[in-house]
Specification:
By secondary structure, this protein is α+β, with helices and mostly antiparallel strands. It contains twelve helices and 19 strands. Helix 2 packs parallel to helix 3, helix 3 packs antiparallel against helix 4 and helix 4 (171-182) packs across helix 7. The two termini are 24 Å apart.
Length: 398
């Protein structure tokens, strides 16, 4: 996410609306103040007012995006789904948004209210270097319905929680929580952060001595927070989460925000030691973690293809001649949907599935070609490197 400034009223990001095509828009419309009525009349009045709000939002979207989108309204939740994706994609996107928002509101961000929330997900994304944005108070766009969506939705619900509390939280906490929830599962109303292959990258940075001292990181302002700080901020909060301290930290932090907005006092309280010692313990913990997965390199298990992120899957960019994917009948442009039943949206989903199977293993791939969903079997190869992708697009190897 690209963020340059935040005040209680506005957070500015790099505009990207002109770059979006084939948009998916999900809007959760805020609840309304009760009318001075009683019983069923009051409920009817609120529902009618909500429906009018939703219809006004749809009309605005139609003016902006013309007739390229399909609109689905959920009056009960105040949900508008406007998408160029197929029915299956729209249904999945809606389920993911609802599940994550409800889990965050019922867990970490219990003061977040049901405010207006617009989520935009394009079928294609023009800027692979910036894959999502949050524009307060209630607008999110994301390149996919996986990790990027979780990152930006976390920003939106966290922002609503801050507004309800009358607080403004530091950038390390906002971006750290968003990064933490990128690598997370949502099930039974609970968001569970996970250890993924990206921790290996952070470990390499830490082993090389490239660490941002905790007091410095906690004091950073928005304009000073760069891509170099995301991984450590997320890693700090993963440490709290895996040690069972995250909820207590956030509760203590928000309760004592007026006295300490940086988070230092709450960190020291939940860990029971000074910040310098917390940093030492965190560093030792991070470096001692077993590698989640090896980083991609030659000789690894491979499908023999390179992929470009797509809104609801991984689109095949190029195929290695006579490689596993080519032999299985896959074509450039096919969108990978599942591997052995595991949902694939980004490389974070694809890498664990491929890397945890031995070379020579057979996998069932579900993919989309045009408007059809098809399946095939593929045998994992050894170290087959796909051709280099075009310079204009950023591709990720499996």
């Amino acid at each position: 996410m690209t963020v340059t400034a935040m005040t209680p009223a506005i957070l500015t990001s790099v505009p990207c609306a002109a770059l979006l095509q084939a948009l998916l828009v999900v809007t959760l419309v805020s609840g309304c103040a009760p009318a001075p009525l009683t019983g069923g009349e009051a409920a009817t009045d609120r529902n009618q007012h909500r429906h009018e709000q939703m219809q006004a939002a749809v009309d605005k979207l139609r003016r902006k995006h013309k007739e390229t989108l399909t609109y689905d309204l959920d009056d009960e939740r105040g949900l508008i789904l406007a998408t160029a994706l197929d029915e299956r994609g729209r249904r999945e996107a809606r389920e993911r948004v609802v599940a994550l928002v409800e889990a965050l509101r019922g867990g970490l961000f219990r003061q977040a209210t049901n405010r207006l929330l617009t989520v935009v997900i394009p079928a294609r994304w023009a800027n692979p270097r910036v894959t999502g944005h949050f524009y307060p108070p209630a607008y999110v766009d994301a390149a996919n319905i996986g990790s990027t969506l979780r990152h930006e939705i976390t920003h939106a619900v966290h922002y609503a929680d801050q507004r309800a509390r009358g607080q403004e939280h530091p950038v390390w906490l906002m971006e750290g929580l968003a990064r933490l929830h990128e690598d997370a599962t949502v099930a039974d109303g609970v968001v569970t952060p996970c250890l993924t292959h990206r921790m290996v990258e952070l470990q390499a940075e830490l082993a090389a001595g490239r660490i941002h001292p905790f007091p410095v990181l906690l004091a950073l302002e928005h304009r000073a927070f760069t891509s170099r700080h995301y991984a450590q901020a997320g890693g700090m909060l993963l440490y709290l989460s895996m040690n069972g301290h995250l909820q207590r930290f956030y509760d203590l932090y928000t309760a004592g925000h007026a006295q300490d907005a940086s988070g230092r006092v709450a960190l020291e309280a939940v860990c029971g030691k000074p910040l310098a010692e917390i940093q030492q313990d965190w560093l030792a913990w991070a470096l001692a973690l077993p590698p989640a997965l090896p980083l991609p390199n030659d000789g690894r298990p491979s499908l023999g293809a390179s992929f470009i992120p797509f809104a609801d899957g991984m689109r095949i960019d190029q195929l290695a001649a006579a490689g596993p994917a080519a032999q299985a009948g896959l074509l450039a442009g096919d969108v990978l949907i599942t591997v052995d039943g595991v949902r694939i949206i980004t490389e974070d989903d694809l890498i664990p599935v491929v890397f945890t199977h031995p070379i020579g293993a057979s996998l069932t791939l579900e993919f989309r070609r045009g408007g059809s969903y098809l399946t095939t079997r593929v045998t994992i190869g050894r170290g087959i490197t796909a051709p280099a992708p075009p310079a204009a697009e950023e591709a990720t190897a499996d």
